[in-house]
Structure formats: structure tokens, C-alpha cells
Amino acid sequence: MVLIGRSCKTKGSPSTLFKNAKEIHISDIMHTSQNSIQPQYCTFKVKTTTILNRLEPWFYACKGCDKKVDKDVSKECLNDKCRGIIDDPVPRYLVKILVENGTDNARVTLFDAVETLIGCKAEKLVTEKKEKNNQSPYFQKFILNIRKTFKFLVKLDEKTKDEAKAI
User: Fold this and answer.
1) Which of 57, 7, 4 is nearest to 33 (CA)?
2) 167: CB partners within 8 A, 6+ apart
3) Of 2, 57, 74, 167, which alpha carbon lies 20 to 30 A from 112's?
4) CA gap 99, 45 in Å, rounded
5) What is the pTM of this model?
6) Is 152 helix (H, G, I), strand (E, B) or coil?
């Protein structure tokens, strides 16, 4: 199961959504998302066990549309609607983690929500990591999130058959 953490526009503040969301278990997510007609917000509490891409938890994005840029080859935005050549793409978080709740586990992908966990934008983490390698205080804070418990807000709807979007 893959859960996706995206920065998305929602009706209501994240704190209100958290407060009003029903708490569920990881195993409930697939069942709930397949049977949902109306979008609903739920929370689940899990412990991080591993950060799969801890050495490079970002991707390079187009400044115009925020989609991935093929930085190494053509510098072309990979968004079919944009397809511009991007000379100066910006880093954005893309963190892949494994989580567990005692009986179940899942792979979770987080995007902009990581900024809250680390305390800086992706661009600052990339710069500091290059300058200070693994001695960056932000990188250290990022690594220290392993084995900590977090509560995720997830939007479940009829479109999410194989994945849920954690906000």
C-alpha cells in the first residue's frame, strides 16, 4: 500500500481537518477508499521505521507548474501541459518512508508536509547538505524522525483505489 503526502488545497485548515477526521488503522485505508463515494478525511497514527531515500529526499521541479524536471538529461519539465526547458529547477521534498502501527505496515510518500517535520524548505536542506554533508542540523533533524510516531491526515475518495493522499 502506498500513501501519498501532498500539499493540496483543502476546505478548512489542517488543524480543523485533523480535529474532525475519523481515526482509522492502516489496514482500513484500502477498504475505506474503495467504498467511498464522498471524499472524507481520516487520520492514522504510525511509527516511522525507515527513510528509504534519506540521502536525497527531494526532486527538482518546474518553477511554473511544480512538476518534475528531467534535470540530468534535457532539463525539460515532464508535465505534458508545460514541457518547457527549465534552466533553474527548484528542489521539492519527496520522502519515501516505511511506517508501522504494530500489526500493519505501509510505504508512505510525503511531499511538502516534510517541511513541517524538518523546519526548512527543500532548497535550504539541499544547500546545507551539499555544504555540510550529513552535518547539517536540518538533515540531522530529518534523520531523527526515524522511530518516531506521527499522525497522518489522509483524504480518501473514490479515485484512491491503490493509494491515499496524506496531507
Assistant:
1) 4
2) 5, 6, 7, 8, 10, 14, 17, 41, 113, 152, 153, 154, 155
3) 74
4) 9
5) 0.77
6) strand
Longest dimension (CA), the chain: 49
Annotate 136-146 with b (16+ C-beta within 10 A) or e (fewer). bebbeebeebe
- DSSP state for residue 30 in the 8-state scheme: H
Residue 112 CB neighbours (<10 A): 17
> For residue 94, is it left (φ>0), alpha (ψ between -120 and 50) or beta?
beta
71-103 as b/e: b if 16+ CB within 10 A: eeeebebebeeeeeebeebbbbbbbebbbeeee
Looking at residue 10, its amino acid is T
For the chain, list residues with pLDDT below 70: 1-14, 30-38, 157-167
How far is it, in rounded angstroms, from Cα 123 to Cα 84? 21
Kindly calculate the radius of gyration of the chain based on its CA atoms and give it in whole angstroms.
Answer: 17
